[in-house]
Amino acid sequence: MSGQNGSRELEAAMRDRIGQECLHVPSARFGLLLALRHWFERGDRVLISPTNCETVLFVVLAAGLEPVMAPVSWRDGNIDVPNIDWNGLAGVVTTHLYGQPDRVTELRAECDRRGVILLDDAAHAMQTTVGGRAAGTFGTAGVFSLAKHGRAMSGGFLTARDPAALPELARARDESLLPGGARAQLLGTLRPVLRETIYRTGLVRPMWHALKALGLVQWTGHRCPPREKELRAALAGDPVDLRALDHWLRIDLDDWRMRQGPLLRRYQRSRFRVIDRERGRRVAGVELLRTLPWAAEGVRDAAPQPLLRVPLLVENRDEVVARLESRGVVPGFIYDPPLDDYLELVPEGPSSEIARWWTGHVLPVDPLRAARMAGLLTELDVRPAPRPFTASQQPA
Ligand SMILES: Cc1ncc(COP(=O)(O)O)c(C=O)c1O
């Protein structure tokens, strides 16, 4: 299936995990871009969650599409399926925020009924299942991120329900990949190795301060600066020129569309073993975190899964983050403000108050660090965020 020989082994390993043919891609965002270009026409309206990572928004824009903000649930930050306005939608991109599954069975059924294309973005949810089936396989196509799972810091997969679509997607991939020099290949492998070492040796705090002091942490706040005027200019081309958009598409991953050589691919293959090795500890961490007073209702009520992060909802979140950072814990994965507040060109979604509450209070916690975080949050006297719902919105 693959133009890159060594990718076949990775693709076979992924196919065995999810039960569907896959293409290896350098990043989930690149896979998503290929899928959006393949299944949609310029100007199509595609529903995405405002609580999501901005890379999803930027690939939708890069594909020449119109992003529409989804209603979101206060219980898990995912798409609130019963409240979707389906008018004029050509597609939906799932969220599976932090690994907590979207209501994909309902989404699939509604999309099928209405002839809407569902793309199943499982970038956060490589180990999530719904009714025994892997998240990422509920759509016409789906994507996965090795940058997050196994902390490989690059790599991902694109899968399609109909394997006959894959050869054309592979051609499109090979045409858009950029050659990576030896230095970029080596750095792509060394970076995650170095990061793992830092985490294992407990040097997070001094490293974090050093990186900030050296100006290597490129922005403060939770999202990259939008630079909206330049963005609008970069989007003007027809078709959209990916090079003009590189600033927005390479957030946290400079080599998001670099052809990955044997060294990087071998490293990524080795991270599958890490994912499997950590699975038990991850579930145990989720089991602990979901019982805490800060846990999101949706996680508390669901059967524990090996989530990427567990969303806690806390008062004075940014102050809590600053205090955690000073103790060597850097939470990450905070997507604040919601995408419709982030860019003026994105029209406001139907549940903007809930989205704002969610992104303004969420503290995503790595289940592998559950016990330490539970202790720290108690020690810091962190209070749960008051729920935003009114009596009529409360669950039965
Ligand atoms: C939900 C979601 N989808 C897709 C992506 C893109 O993943 P990758 O970094 O592998 O391109 C991200 C994060 O960047 C994400 O959070």
Give the topology.
Layout: H1 7-18, E1 22-25, H2 28-39, E2 45-48, H3 54-62, E3 66-69, E4 89-93, H4 104-114, E5 117-121, E6 129-130, E7 133-134, E8 141-145, E9 156-160, H5 166-176, H6 182-201, H7 204-213, H8 228-234, H9 246-249, H10 262-289, H11 297-301, E10 310-313, H12 317-326, H13 339-342, H14 352-361, E11 362-365, H15 370-379
Bound molecules: pyridoxal-5'-phosphate.
Pyridoxal-5'-phosphate is lined by residues 27-29, 52-53, 55-56, 121, 123-124, 145, 147, 156, 253, 256.
What does this protein look like?
By secondary structure, the protein is an alpha/beta fold. It has 15 helices and 11 strands. It has a 7-stranded mixed beta sheet with strand order 1-9-8-5-4-2-3, with helices on both faces. Helix 3 (54-62) links the parallel strand 2 (45-48) and strand 3. Helix 2 (28-39) packs parallel to helix 3 (54-62). The N and C termini lie far apart (49 Å). 45% of the residues are buried. Bound molecules: pyridoxal-5'-phosphate. Pyridoxal-5'-phosphate (PLP) is lined by residues 27-29, 52-53, 55-56, 121, 123-124, 145, 147, 156, 253, 256.
Outline:
The chain has 396 residues and is α/β, with parallel strands linked by helices.
**Total domains, how many?**
2
* Radius of gyration, taken over Cα atoms and rounded to an integer in Å: 20 Å
What is the beta-strand fraction?
5-15%
List the secondary-structure elements in sequence, H or E: HEHEHEEHEEEEEHHHHHHHEHHHEH
